[in-house]
Write a structure and sequence with these properties.
Elements: E1 3-4, E2 18-25, H1 31-44, E3 50-54, E4 61-65, E5 73-75, H2 82-89, E6 102-107, E7 113-120, H3 126-142, H4 168-184, H5 190-203, E8 206-213, H6 215-228, H7 232-244, E9 248-254, E10 271-277, H8 285-300, H9 303-306, H10 308-315, H11 318-328, H12 335-344, E11 352-361, E12 366-372, E13 379-388, E14 391-399
């Protein structure tokens, strides 16, 4: 059965929709074992042998498997220069119709080696790729075969929890944009998008700021979070609010447990995002964190708010989604595309802040790891957080 691209389509024609997991593996580099582990991953996850294709008659997009596709691996010699290497891998965008949706950079060493898994967002979300890295490490060090996991992307709003339907007002707004798009009678070609993508990346360089919390600091912050009745995620959102002097931060939320067809370990995008907006202007970060906690709990408990952006994608004309970024921040002339890109997705103002916290992983085969978040064109800063064995790393993507 074909796996069609619906909610993931928002990542197809939007620049910088790639991200990475940079990990230090707790063993020396062996080229043969490295590629054996990659082959095992590809056997367990069909999307690693796929790119994007279009049905001739319907025009629908789907994940097309090709047995000859190989995951490209680039060997480098200086892990301290990872930012330059990472940027070089994506300097000219990513042709999802022709290229594998995953690429790797490896830094060989005798005692332990580093590797960066760079994924197109069409391949999965942060937790999907983190699971890939863990499976790779376990296979490389102990020979554990990755578990076969059938991918099952979201195909219908009926798969979302009850209450996820758009409100009457939002249906009217999306319906208006759909009708306007059809009336305009044109589409964005992938070739035109690729030109725009290359220009945007060249004109909008991205830098990455790193911060490390050793286990002792992580444990101390967690202890204080417990005392104040908030989560580490609440604290991280509050920290960004105070540091950036903003009262609105978008937080990524894992929605796997809410989806009826999700298979454990499957690749794909099983995340949503919710805007946390608070009026608390206190200088005390714990006061802000409590306000964040309250708002986040309300949003997560409300399927209409938690699933709203996914529901919007499922109601929108697919080609209208394609036109959003290039109309709002490019030169494509579509009023409907500009409306969606500006009013719904924030590409015109480009003043957003976002946090994605992948949590903690305990894995003896990984020394440390860092989540390199996607640099959404809608954001000023996007922070990714990942802990391995309670050593926490932050990586913040920001436009220069």
């Amino acid at each position: 059965m074909k796996q069609y691209i619906l909610t993931e389509r928002a990542h197809l024609m939007c620049p910088n929709m790639h991200f990475g997991i940079k990990a230090k593996i707790a063993a020396g580099y062996d080229e043969g074992k490295f590629h054996d582990a990659l082959r095992a991953l590809a056997s367990a996850h069909p999307f690693l042998k796929s790119n994007v294709a279009r049905e001739a008659k319907s025009g629908k997009l789907y994940y097309c498997q090709h047995q000859e596709i190989k995951i490209p691996v680039f060997e480098k010699d200086n892990a301290s220069r990872w930012q330059d290497d990472y940027s070089d891998m994506t300097r000219y965008g990513w042709d999802a119709f022709k290229k594998c949706l995953l690429k790797l950079i490896v830094y060989p060493d005798r005692e332990s080696f580093e590797v960066i898994f760079i994924a197109h967002h069409l391949l999965g979300d942060g937790r999907s790729i983190l699971n890939l890295v863990c499976e790779f490490a376990n296979c490389y060090l102990s020979g554990k075969t990755p578990t076969l996991a059938e991918e099952s992307p979201i195909l219908s709003i009926d798969e979302l929890p009850k209450g996820s339907q758009l409100s009457s007002v939002n249906k009217l707004i999306i319906g208006y944009a759909n009708r306007k798009w059809k009336h305009e009678g044109h589409t964005v070609s992938y070739e035109d998008y690729r030109k725009f993508e290359t220009e945007f990346i060249a004109d909008n360089p991205v830098s990455y700021l790193e911060e490390v919390w050793e286990p002792r600091k992580t444990e101390e912050v967690l202890r204080k979070c417990h005392e104040h009745g908030v989560s580490l995620n609440d604290y991280l959102v509050a920290e960004m609010m105070r540091k950036e002097k903003t009262n609105r931060v978008v937080a990524a939320v894992d929605i796997r447990r809410h989806l009826s067809r999700y298979k454990v370990g499957a690749l794909g995008n099983y995340a949503s995002a919710t805007a946390i907006e608070v009026s608390n202007k206190s200088e005390d970060i714990w006061n802000i964190a409590r306000s964040v906690s309250e708002r986040l709990k309300k949003n997560i408990s409300n399927p209409g708010k938690l699933m709203m952006i996914l529901a919007c994608y499922l109601y929108m004309e697919p080609e209208l989604i394609d036109a959003a970024a290039i109309s709002a921040i490019g030169r494509f002339n579509s009023s409907a595309g500009k409306f969606i890109g500006s009013a719904i997705l924030g590409y015109k103002k480009r003043n957003g802040y976002s946090v994605t916290n992948l949590g903690n992983v305990d894995n003896p085969n990984i020394v440390e790891a860092m989540f390199i978040p996607p640099a959404s064109p809608a954001n000023v800063k996007t922070m990714g957080v990942l802990s391995v064995n309670h050593r926490l790393k932050k990586c913040t993507a920001h436009y220069q």
